[in-house]
Fold:
Amino acid sequence: MTKTLKSELRQRATIVCAAMLLLLFAIESKSTNADDLRKKLITETRHDFGAVARGAKSLHRFVINNPYSKPIIIASVRSSCGCTTATFSTKEIAPFGSGEIIADFNTRSFLGKKNATITVSFTQPYRFEIQLIVSGYIRSDIVFDPGSISFQNVDSGVTKTLSTTISYAGSSLWKIEDIQSGCPYLSAELVELERSSKLVKYRLTTTIDESAPVGHLNAELIVVTNDRKMNKVPLTVVANVNSPLSVSPSQISIPSLENGIVKKTRLVLRGNEGFQITAVQCKDPRVDIKVASTTKKVHLVTVTFNSTGRSDLPRQIPIVFQTSLGAGNSVTVPMTVGK
Structure:
């Protein structure tokens, strides 16, 4: 072999080794970047449902946060097991916003110990994946009917009650010893309906009281039994507590302070019953508000802003509407003037 040929082979080997090292460095760097991104986006990657009753509504929401000034795009979510259905709340997570990956444990079609891996695929800020793990034990001997307590829409200040049947197929010695609630707005009462050698049945009556705050309520009742192996079974409770008074849009934005600018905005005030607008509080002389004195469930209110061009006047202007409703009888609409 000539010296020239040996030299060429050495050069080629050096180039190949350098290329392989660069490739390995790029892969490792990309893996490190992906791991760093995962840690920034999500803090919880595992959830154990524990022991759940057959037919129970079992959902868990993994929160994904976007700490960046550009949107994050979710391409797809998939589950490794039919025991869990995975969906996402939004495909595009806005800058500095958040979204959810929702894991729905299928307690009607599966029994026993189940595990699933949920793979979330992203296309922005670049292509990468996050894997989430869910697990749980679906009991065949305990059945909730319905599988969750859903109050749906509840008016604020109103008490509402729903019932659930809890059935146990097995020993007649089985019993429910307690119902635990970590939510101060929920109370529960238990009545035994049936006890035989093959079946024990209870009626659970759950009440959400008038002190529940406005907004979405997602809680659990824990059914405590004398089963020493798996003595606690969760029952999901959800409610949407509505304000007796709402306004849309919830805020007013005036982009310009230029003299002579006139901006009219129509507000819709909606109550759960007929009401009057009894007073309007706004101390800014540039704002004119027209309201009707009639009693009705929906009021259309015109708010007019007349700009004077002065920059020394307040840019944050609260507008307070007082009404004849009982609890929650007022609503405030913030007005922002100028950028």
